[in-house]
TrEMBL record:
It is found in: Membrane. This is O-antigen ligase-related domain-containing protein. It is a multi-pass membrane protein. It comes from Candidatus Methylumidiphilus alinenensis. Coiled coil: none annotated. Residues 210-385 form the O-antigen ligase-related domain. The keyword Membrane applies. Keywords: Membrane, Transmembrane, Transmembrane helix. GO terms for cellular component: membrane.
Length: 464
């Protein structure tokens, strides 16, 4: 998806002429990108369309990917999940229903290669793709924002704008990251750009960034706040350090823009300070040091804090992993393992809108890495984690060869950094929007590699 703006080769080279199948695949890609967090059914339809097109274009992509390390690991993971699920159903028949149900959720992530292929085929339309993604996020905010309480914008309760707060916050955070790191591209004036259009784009960038930043605050998701606080400053310094060092002459316009940004940042912090302070120091975590201290001393404490809950989950997960350290318990076993603990803290009575009271069971360990270990053991975890390592290493290789600009390298690495930190505190596999979010990041990263693989394949073919 990012490849369209790469200057490594002529955009009108071999794949610029789109076939009818490419057009159909592009339509599926549009549906998926627009609805990836708006509507599961439409997003799945788009994913199905582009996957069918991908399968029908096997003669085109197979020569390109056949020796690719990512494709090999991808195939190994796919086979491993399928056969491991069958084994888990036989080994733990009481969990067979959960094993089958969770198989799709885990396989869902692996559709990133068909998505990346369509992004690569339509690389000339990078602007439209990015706009589609951002439009979907903004539509959710606009449609689900409590406009009746607009006057209480900075004092409103937590909101996920129609979805889970812990799902929407990472999506909004990644969008802001892209706006910050790719800002010069959005505000660059070329020979065909008029001044009014440049100001319009800059204004849109400012307004969009402000809305998305405010939405992150309103979700009150501390894991995302922490990840953003750690990643954003580092990514911005790495991204702009060389540019600032080479910018010897400081213009009046640069000073004015910097002053405006500092003023807006100050206003943002001032308006949201109370929300941030209350959330960080809320009742959930106010007694955290004392509770943790009592636990370390071996006292039995009723944990009502966020960290306290996680400590219980992580202890159980660690114990269960050690019981089956190498192979794990199967892709759909965590909920059953938690039920077996018979801990009253893991069940909640909730009254639905129709007045019926139901009991909900907490079904995950609030840590993606621990979930990998418990469900798939060391072997499966190493397979899964090998994939992002290979993807990012190939991004760096592409950059070293001049195949990808520095700002995109920063964007991709920072995006994975956000996910890596957020995944330490939560697990959202059951939410389709979160799975799509991870899928899109993997697809963006792999699309970079497809450019290099295609170039290598063309060189080999030209020598024959």
């Amino acid at each position: 998806m990012l490849i369209a703006a790469f200057n490594s080769r002529n955009e009108n080279a071999s794949h610029s002429d789109l076939s009818r199948l490419d057009t159909i695949g592009g339509f599926g890609l549009f549906l998926f990108l627009l609805f990836f967090q708006l509507n599961a059914t439409v997003a799945y339809i788009g994913l199905l369309i582009l996957s069918l097109v991908f399968a029908s274009q096997a003669k085109t992509w197979m020569p390109v990917m056949k020796r690719d390390s990512v494709a090999i690991v991808y195939l190994l993971i796919t086979l491993y999940i399928v056969f491991f699920t069958i084994w888990a159903i036989v080994e733990f028949p009481a969990t067979s229903g959960d094993q089958r149900k969770l198989l799709f959720n885990w396989m869902h992530w692996l559709f990133f290669i068909p998505v990346a292929w369509q992004q690569f085929r339509h690389r000339k339309y990078i602007g439209a793709m990015l706009l589609t993604l951002a439009a979907g996020v903004l539509i959710r905010i606009i449609v689900n924002f409590p406009w009746a309480d607009f006057g209480k914008l900075f004092q409103t309760e937590r909101t996920g704008f129609g979805t889970s707060m812990t799902v929407f916050a990472p999506i909004a955070s990644s969008t802001v990251l892209g706006l910050l790191l790719l800002a010069p591209r959005m505000a660059t004036q070329n020979s065909t750009t008029t001044k009014w259009l440049l100001w319009l784009r800059t204004s849109g960038w400012l307004v969009g960034s402000a809305i998305l930043l405010e939405s992150i605050v309103l979700t009150q998701t501390r894991g995302v706040w922490l990840a953003s606080a750690l990643v954003f400053p580092l990514a911005l310094v790495v991204r702009y350090k060389s540019a600032l060092a080479n910018h010897v002459k400081i213009s009046t316009q640069s000073v004015a823009v910097l002053a405006l940004l500092c003023g807006l940042a100050g206003l943002f912090v001032h308006k949201n300070y109370q929300t941030l302070f209350n959330r960080v120091n809320s009742e959930q975590v106010q007694s955290q040091p004392e509770v943790v201290k009592q636990q370390i001393e071996g006292q039995e404490v009723l944990l009502t804090t966020s960290v306290g809950y996680r400590k219980i989950f992580w202890e159980i997960g660690w114990r269960k992993w050690k019981e089956r350290a190498f192979f794990g318990w199967g892709p759909g076993t965590t909920e059953e393992l938690l039920k077996q603990e018979k801990n009253p803290l893991f069940s909640q009575s909730v009254t639905r809108k129709d007045g019926v009271t139901v009991t909900l069971h907490l079904y995950h360990l609030h840590n993606l890495y621990l979930e990998f270990l418990v469900r798939f053991g060391v072997l499966g975890t190493l397979l899964f984690l090998t994939l992002p390592v290979l993807l990012l290493s190939n991004v760096w290789k592409a950059y070293a060869k001049g195949g990808i600009p520095w700002d995109y390298v920063c964007f991709l690495f920072a995006g994975w950094g956000l996910m890596a930190i957020m995944a330490f505190f939560d697990f959202q596999l059951y939410k389709y929007a979160w799975r799509n979010y991870c899928l899109i990041w993997a697809a963006l990263t792999y699309a970079v590699q497809l450019e290099q693989l295609t170039l290598q394949h063309e060189k080999i073919q030209s020598k024959k």
